[in-house]
Amino acid sequence: MSVSVIDQIVSLTNDFRRQNGLPPVTLNPLLGTAAQTQSQNMALEDYFDHTSPTGVTPGQRATAAGYRWSRVAENIGAGHTTAVSVVQGWINSPGHRANLLDPKLREIGVGYYFMPSDTGTENWNHYWTQVLAAPM
Question: Is residue 119 part of a domain?
Fold first, then answer.
């Protein structure tokens, strides 16, 4: 994924948090690995859910990436073609919005996977993941 797309999602997320009186989150590469894994797996394994078909959860993905967390949340999106669109989708979704505005979450990772020939049951082409967490 383009670094500029990662930076744009982090910037949009932090703008929204600041507008709501919260401090910004900081980019964490381990959370980025967890997020990228989720985006890629959703596309390649043909699902759109926070829990994989084999039962792997956002917390388990963060742990597998080497991140030690006390709190973790995940926002996923599919079909959005831009960072602005996916972040706006999260803002408009009550559950995802709550994750964005959780004051205990201080770090972020972003994942994006593009599958141009997506012919599965979940046919979205664009798969986005944002992992927000608080370290141990």
Answer: no
